Amino acid sequence: MGERTLMKGNEALAEGAVRAGCRFFSGYPITPQNEIPEYMSWRLSEVGGTFIQAESEVAAINMLFGASACGARAMTSSSGPGISLKQEGISYTASAELPIFYANVVRGGPGLGNIAPAQGDYFQATRGGGHGDYRVLVMAPNSVSEMGNLPKLCYEFADKYRMVTMVLADGLLGQMMEPIEFNFDPVDPAKLPPKDWALGNADGRPRRVVRSYDLKPGFMEKHVWKLMEKYKKVEENEVRYETAMVDDAEILIVAYGTSSRISKAALSLGRNENIRIGLLRPITLWPFPMKPLNELASRIKKILVVEMSAGQMIEDVKLAIEGKAQVFFHGRPAGGIPTGEEVLEVVKKIMGTGN
Amino acid sequence: MEKKVFAKTNGLVDIPMRYCPGCGHGVVHRMIGEVMDELKIRERTIGIAPVGCSVFADEYFNCDMIQPAHGRGPAVATGMKRVRPDCIVFSYQGDGDLASIGMAEIIHSAARSENITVVFINNAIFGMTGGQMAPTTLPGMRSTTSPFGRDPKVAGNPIRICELLSALEGPVYLARVAVNTPANVVKAKRAIKKAFQVQIDGLGFSLVEILSQCPTDWALTPLQSIKKIQDEMIPYYPLGEFKVPEETKTEDKGKVSAG
Fold it and tell me: Is A67 in Cβ contact with B79 (below 8 Å)?
């Protein structure tokens, strides 16, 4: 636990990771996440950890592969273009079942795009992103407070399921300052349960091997089914979301991250005009809150998906509600940021109360 | 009185290897296994098996092993060594792995002088994928992607890794050896041992480049292959030490000399 302090989102994320026991960071500069490696470069030395500015995103994620294989809580961060480069290592890490944590502070894309806040990497994050059958547990903060407090959960999930976990933020969350109170005591990595698969001093035990392949016929298929069993448990147990004013809602907004903050503003504005808006905010984007959304859709027949993208999460919303409600979309890709008023106008049009 | 003159090394798992007849991997594996035993470091060594023929190394070395993505061995070794400085970390890599796709990782880990050991097998060919041109394929040498022989005008000239890394301040020990004759094998083992010793002493980055034969993809017999190393490889890739730690310069002078 700690005091309430004012922090920048990116720094809160880095500090949260260190407090959660992160002792290894490797990364490569890219806007708008540079405060994370900058913070780590001095902060990790205070706790006896290692910071490396890697030669590339590819090297950075592979350094994590090694650090994590030796049992360390490790982290890397980047933004869209850099995350694309890391996908090779992420796929290998998923297959080798190494628990790692990384953050994508999303900017406008595709391509070099721009450095404005965006949510266009939803597909990349929630569909794994790299090659092969695997999943990544994705958490989407919508405040500086969550930027600082979600890394601990990510590390716990990563260790529990031996899987890749990530925070999907955006440039706005990374750059803005807000009060934060860390809601957990700093974790001493030396006191974490020993990892009975980690490489290191053998000291008489049988040798251990960390690998991402199996060339024996049929064995890789078995391995993937084993991964899927694990992911099924994650889907059953680790869905996180929050709702606001859904009880009497006539229209439900579904939004995550910065879009959910904007949508909350629209909700308040709408409620002032007696427009009964509700909100569901997924906190885990994978696993997606399929069931709660499906249940709400039985009651609320109009759903508006608000994203800072051209429409990505909307596909999960449609999958979740199984056609039970009408789905509308308002999105602004590649750096466009909607306002509460803008979203309210869209709501009014849908409800037939606008002009 | 019987005298024991030969024993299996405890550094290798006692199972048959899948490498082709005449391939150099087996000899090099054995030397690393023996060195781990002789330096008494096997219990605290982590090896890295590359993508390529020697991906199977993760079954053969009797120590903890990891198998990362193609070319990324030095980055993975960096992560491991920084987290476990008490462990001995070696990255076993082929020429496609190290000198092509992994060029950035090898150069930067050498520049940072990561305290790791790299064993670099240069057989001038992509082995496992079926004999394609490597960055180390000799001019005029045929491969499945240079069927008329490597044309330096199109594909450039082969890369000499030891010479390239010698330009950096970081590397502490750099040597090129070969496994084509018994005498060269003895020198190769000495170089490998020295490289591991450099790491044990905490001096920094060490790399041993080993000219090795690939009869299958060279489409030669094992005997023709070792002759090719002598006649074609060594003239282009001269053997010897390119960098040695200051304190061993005098005493070890000449121990590993041009072959």
Answer: yes
